[in-house]
Each structure stands twice: as C-alpha cells, then as structure tokens.
Please model this.
Amino acid sequence: MAKRKLKLWEALALSLGLMGPTLAMAGNGQGIIGTVGKAVPLVFALGFVGVALVAYGFIRLTQRYNHAGSAYALVGATLGPRAGFVAGFALFGTYLFFTICTAAVFGAFLNALIGSASGTGTSVGFGIAAVACLLVTGFMNTRDTRTVSQSLLVIEGVGIAAMLVLVAAVLGQGGAEQTGVDLTTFSPDGVGLSAVLAAVVAAFLSWAGFEACAALGEETDDPRRNIPRALFGSVLLTGALYVLVMFAQTIGFGTDEAGLAAFQGSGNTLGDLGEGYLGHWFALLLLFTAVLSAFASNLSSVMASARLAMALARDGFGPRQFAQIDPTHQTPRNAVLAMAGIGIVVNLVSWLTGWPVMGTGDAAIDAYFFYAVVGATCLLFVYLLVEVAVFAAWRRGVITVRAAELVLPALGGGFILVVIGYSVKDATGFSPAYVAIGWVLLGLLVAVLAGGLAKRIGASLARELDEVDEDRTVVDPEPV
Model:
C-alpha cells in the first residue's frame, strides 16, 4: 500500500484537474447551440442535476471502500470480481483516452495563444506540443503526489479566478448591447424535450472525471471522510461554476441570431469574450489559462490512468512492473511512464496521418474530440455499474442507506441510460461511441473467459481492502 499523506483539498485537486473547468468552458458550449439555441445555461443546469445523482453512488460507496482502483474496487467488492474487472477496465480506458486527448488539445490551445500573442499566425505541430506536454506531465507524476496535487490546484485556481472576473465584467456591462441580461436562457420554450436531452449529453461530459479523486483513496488521510467530501466538493463547485459561466457567455455574445452564431463559431469562447469585454491583454490571459487547464487535465489523466494500471497489474492483469511502487516518491513510476508513452505514440500517429477527422477543420481539435468522446462513453458504463453497486451494497448491509434514498441511484442509473442512448443512436462507422463500446466489450470478454483472473481479483480486492481498513478512521456513514 502507498503511504497515506494527502489532505482533502489535495484529493479534490485531482478531480478538478481531470475535469479541467477552464478547458470545458472554453470549448464545450459551442456544440449544443445548434440544438437548443440560447437555452445553453438550462442544459448545463440539467446536466448538473444529472451528475449530482451519479455522484451520490460514488459518495456512498467511498464511505465504505477506498482503493487505488476507484470504481474497480467499488464495483468488485459489491457486484463481484468479474463486474469489478469490467468497471476497472472501462475506467482505465477512460483515463488512458483522456491522457491522449488532453495532450492534443494542449497543442491546439498553445497554438491559439502563440498566434494571438505574435499576431503572425505562428504555430507548431500539435504532435510536437503533445509530446512536450506528456514528457513534462509524465516526469511530474513520477515525483511526490503532493507536488502534483498542489500544481493542479494552483493551475485550476488561476483559471477559475479569471473566468469569474470575466463573468463579473459581462454582468457588470449588462451583457451584449442588443439583448442584455436575458433570463429566458433558462426557459425550454421552443426547444423540445428531445433536443434538450440530446444536448444534456454534451453538457454531462463536461463533468467527466469528477470521480478521479477516488483513485487516491489509499493515499489520502481519513479516506472514508475526505474522499466523499472531495467528490461532493468537485461536483458542487464545478456545477455552480459551469451554469454561471455558460449563462455569462450566452448573454455576453447575445441571445439573438447574430450573437448565437458568434458563440457557435468561436474557437475559444473565453478568449473571444475577454477580448470584447476587457481587452486584448485579458484575452491573452484567458488563452494562457486554457493552456494551463489542458496541461492540468493531462497531468491528472496520466496520474489516474497509472493508478488504474497499477491496480489491475496488482491483481494479475498487465505487466507486473506496473504494480511496483517507487520507494522514494511512493508513485507507480513504471505505470506512469507507460501511460505517458502511449499518449506520445498515439498523438504522433494522429498528427502524422491526419486521422481522426471530425469536421472541425483543426487536426488537434479533431483528435481531442474523438478520443475525449471515446473516454467519456467508457465512463458512462462505469457510472452505471457504480449506481447498481449501491443497491448491492445496501442489500448486503455494507452501507447504511435509508430506503427512500435509493431513488437517487435509481434516477442516476436512468439518467445514464438516456445519455448512453443519445450517445450511440446516431453513431455510424468507426465512431468514437462504437470504439468505446468495443473497449467495454473487450473487458467483458476477458472477465467472462478468464476465470482464474476473476478469482485472483476477488482474493486480492478482499486482502487489499482489509489492509486499507487497518489504517483508517471509521466514520459514521452519513451523507456529506
């Protein structure tokens, strides 16, 4: 077991870093305007409700179980080793694909910053930028985990502060001159339920990774108390922030046809609004924070994917070297370097071949969206298994839950099924959704066919969770 040393705020930092609030707010609103028009803030408000329902399952289960495998252990300890392996394999895929996509978008944002600062359109190949990003984040993740967490908190703190300054400027100036502060952005009038649900899919993905702090359960002080609080804090903080920032962006561009067209066509909405409301210097600052946010998200993704690779290898799946802990820094050094190496190879191949093509006109953004959707879709299956695991834990008496509370994981599971349905209903060909389903099916096939692996997982999880129990303060499992 790794030496426990992290505090509540340091565990929270991993989730914030993986979600990348500045990254999400700079590029996740444009894609839904064509579906819901000015009702973007309403869509994010509904997404906030949905992710809160999903978070309930993680909060309840981490009040009892904490393990480097996160959902791998939460599901395995309640639904059995085979289900646990499927959850762990899908979650590993999520963080691995996030490692790839966040390095690609780092290159996109870096080029936007260089071009804006120089005024000459100067840029570097996104593959080169992605390699540089992964070399640095790989090295940092071989150091002390506390150093990484502190870096994440500082980086995302700067980005959030800059966004709040922009929000204050937009609201202070009354929004766009032609439409002002338009509160009808929270109304579904003229949109339709189907359109709203389809758009909530995209909004929901902005929270992908909120559960990342659960992977630090073995390294956090008083994990039964601090991990649930970190989960709750990450969802509450980003939920309120996302709704507020999306409202400010929508009224900042304007809710008429011209304003919505400008919003939809923006390559970096925060930078464009910063230019208009506070000047070129602030636009550069926001572009800089977007670069930092992409870097922070990659830093978190490498950390989380390495922790999952370590947990799986510890139970006999994958190279045994991944299970080794560096005695100096207490990190899975071999797994970290392997995850960063995979990210480097895939980004170089994408850059050199020009694949995938997603229609954005920017190779880096195409790569980002493709691998991000693959990872996020894998994550939906993990979330669904965690919601089912709450019921299993309740039936076994492992967690104390009032019967009325079970409506929350039930609603969360229903929400996830709707999101998955809308993610795949229009998918064709070699789409990201189908790649994700293929990954999950591969994990399911291994779980079904490898009986010996399932037995090792069951025995190993029981032993490791018992070892964590020996070094833990038991708290009353009431809602945080």
